[in-house]
């Protein structure tokens, strides 16, 4: 009887580990910004599964570095501010990036500068109809 309980516990633990690796444990995160198209955010899980989100550039209002207090510590993270369709000056949603990898501030600043360069090029480029 004890061996049945032990076998069941091991089986449940293995199933839980497989579910964790497949749906929760993010191994790598990437950001691709193309000024004329949009922003693609890709998360690669430990199991090899990938999740991709695409945000059209017309929806993007700005990219910012935000800060939060977590466990008596200030953490920084990169966010995409989405334009509110009803209010051009407003923000409808804040999309945080790199939530699993939590890069240091100096790395975030480099990514932020690159994103801002692309956004500035898009603003200064003549709009074709």
UniProtKB/TrEMBL annotation:
<dbReference type="GO" id="GO:0000506">
    <property type="term" value="C:glycosylphosphatidylinositol-N-acetylglucosaminyltransferase (GPI-GnT) complex"/>
</dbReference>
<dbReference type="InterPro" id="IPR019328">
    <property type="entry name" value="PIGH-H_dom"/>
</dbReference>
<dbReference type="GO" id="GO:0016740">
    <property type="term" value="F:transferase activity"/>
</dbReference>
<keyword id="KW-0812">Transmembrane</keyword>
<protein>
    <submittedName>
        <fullName>PIGH acetylglucosaminyltransferase</fullName>
    </submittedName>
</protein>
<dbReference type="GO" id="GO:0006506">
    <property type="term" value="P:GPI anchor biosynthetic process"/>
</dbReference>
<comment type="similarity">
    <text>Belongs to the PIGH family.</text>
</comment>
<feature type="transmembrane region" description="Helical">
    <location>
        <begin position="6"/>
        <end position="24"/>
    </location>
</feature>
<keyword id="KW-0472">Membrane</keyword>
<feature type="domain" description="Phosphatidylinositol N-acetylglucosaminyltransferase subunit H conserved">
    <location>
        <begin position="30"/>
        <end position="99"/>
    </location>
</feature>
<dbReference type="InterPro" id="IPR044215">
    <property type="entry name" value="PIG-H"/>
</dbReference>
<comment type="pathway">
    <text>Glycolipid biosynthesis; glycosylphosphatidylinositol-anchor biosynthesis.</text>
</comment>
<dbReference type="Pfam" id="PF10181">
    <property type="entry name" value="PIG-H"/>
</dbReference>
<keyword id="KW-1133">Transmembrane helix</keyword>
<keyword id="KW-0808">Transferase</keyword>
């Amino acid at each position: 009887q004890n061996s049945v309980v032990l076998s069941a516990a091991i089986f449940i633990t293995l199933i839980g580990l497989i579910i964790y690796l497949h749906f929760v444990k993010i191994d790598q995160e990437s950001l691709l910004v193309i000024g004329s198209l949009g922003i693609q955010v890709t998360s690669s899980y430990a199991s090899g599964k990938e999740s991709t989100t695409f945000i059209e550039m017309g929806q993007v209002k700005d990219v910012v570095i935000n800060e939060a207090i977590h466990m008596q510590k200030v953490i920084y993270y990169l966010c995409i501010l989405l334009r509110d369709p009803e209010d051009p000056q407003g923000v409808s949603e804040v999309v945080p990036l790199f939530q699993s990898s939590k890069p240091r501030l100096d790395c975030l600043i480099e990514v932020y500068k690159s994103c801002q360069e692309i956004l500035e090029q898009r603003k200064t480029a003549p709009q074709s109809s």
